[in-house]
Amino acid sequence: MKWDAWGDPAAAKPLSDGIRSLLEQALGVDPDQNHSLDPSEVAVRPSALTEPHRTGLATIVGKEQVSTDDGDRLPRAGGKSTLDLLRRRSRGEQDAPDAVVIPGTEDEIAAILEFAAQEGLAVVPFGGGTSVVGGVDPVRGHFSASISLDLRRFDTLVSLDEVSGEAVLGAGVTGPRAEELLRAQGFSLGHFPQSFQYATIGGFAATRSSGQDSAGYGRFDEMIRGMRVVTPAGVLDLGKAPASAAGPDLVELFAGSEGTFGVITRVRLRVHAEPAVTRYEGWSFPDFATGAAALRAVEQTGTGPTVIRLSDEAETGINLATTDKIGADQITGGCLAVTLFEGSDEHTRSRHEETRAVLLAHGATSLGEEPAKLWEQGRFGAPYLRDSLLTAGALCETLETATTWSNLGTLKAAVTEALTSALGESGTPALVMCHISHVYPTGASLYFTVVAGQRGDVIEQWRAAKQRASDAIVAHGGTITHHHAVGTDHRPWMDSEVGELGTAILRAVKNTVDPAGILNPGKLIP
Ligand SMILES: Cc1cc2nc3c(=O)[nH]c(=O)nc-3n(C[C@H](O)[C@H](O)[C@H](O)COP(=O)(O)OP(=O)(O)OC[C@H]3O[C@@H](n4cnc5c(N)ncnc54)[C@H](O)[C@@H]3O)c2cc1C
User: What family name appears in the similarity comment (predicted)?
Assistant: First the structure.
């Protein structure tokens, strides 16, 4: 993973002529500017880890698994939000963890946590580092140093129960590696967030991630059957049976705990047979409201697409749903939707037919297979485009929420207005696009992509727009996050999300499992 951008440098996406002219004409951006920083120009905050602390950590994990080198600290200095990437491009001293520690066993993690609690060191669990909410920021709080606890060595398929369809995967296994390990035995997890290529099993569990195939396979938290968590107060082995009435579900409590309650070392997950067939169909709707009503009908009827997504007019207009063709003018007007069906030949056929019937009855026009295939081919490409936009002097970021079907239109309008007016006040027009990509019987997510011109202090420019959008989300009945999690960025809205008593309950759990407060300070809990 690049330190100041997304993913593999070889997969970079230069801006097409279509996007370049869009930037120039609509946003007043000069795409020939270069806003990136050479790594040699970066000054990293010096490590504050003392020599005795380094020796103490090295005694636990071995000296080769403790590093205070800038080259190791910088890639763990934060996640991959636009704010993170803009910070990486800023001149002046950059924040970074004081050390990177890479344990190989649960006992080593327990010993690190004990040492950190005794010595007053903050510990930030680190999976793939793809957080977009400041989840891995090296916040020291009142501690003398912050260490990044990298889970990469927990990288195995621990076990597979083929009869029950359950697999135990190490926390550091990445998305592609999980599929590779499972497919070698005829199984698949089916969790494909856009960050799939770099994010990890532990990170998915810690953030209640949701993948693009959630209509078929569920959110990541719905896949979890159990997990092991090392906390400063001891080890928890959670989840005994496929279902249980033994009180409140502690698996649910630790899913989404964002490294503040403990370090997840392995996760037991529901898996399914590797799908034999995929069927594709793209659709056009006259407008977003008609499309949303059709998706609701599909979900409430339960016809079973694996993927179902709907882009609004703006997103359809610039062809963002099929990122490889952005700016090309092959889809005009209306709203594009895509559906995919995975499984056996017979089962995908029947689900496809039922879904078709519902969509056609609700105003859809079929576009054939191609738009859905193109979407699948380009599904992991958009983050590369964001890098090129930032480099060219445009601001580009995403944010997300969810609400009930009856409130969807109101919330979408309120967030769009908040972003447009906040960015307008900073002196730039804004292109606000939106899609639905996760559906439930009672509601859906809304995922916004914003492109604007960079004006003044760009970090402050985006912060102000995001604050306005977050306030609008809360004021209009949305959740502050459907799948990006809380981290530092959404923490100010947690009280509105769960109430003061809810926050007090989270604090009480934190005080029980992490009395010294060393785990991921400044995240999740207000
Ligand atoms: C381009 C892009 C696209 C994205 N698309 C999606 C998407 O489609 N769906 C989605 O849900 N999210 C998405 N995200 C957000 C992000 O990928 C998810 O939050 C992901 O689950 C984080 O996994 P990770 O392994 O990278 O965790 P990290 O970023 O390393 O950590 C995230 C949080 O979890 C904690 N953590 C990590 N591992 C552990 C562990 N083993 N034990 C305890 N705590 C731990 C960290 O301390 C931190 O608070 C996207 C991000 C980017 C940059």
Answer: Belongs to the FAD-binding oxidoreductase/transferase type 4 family.
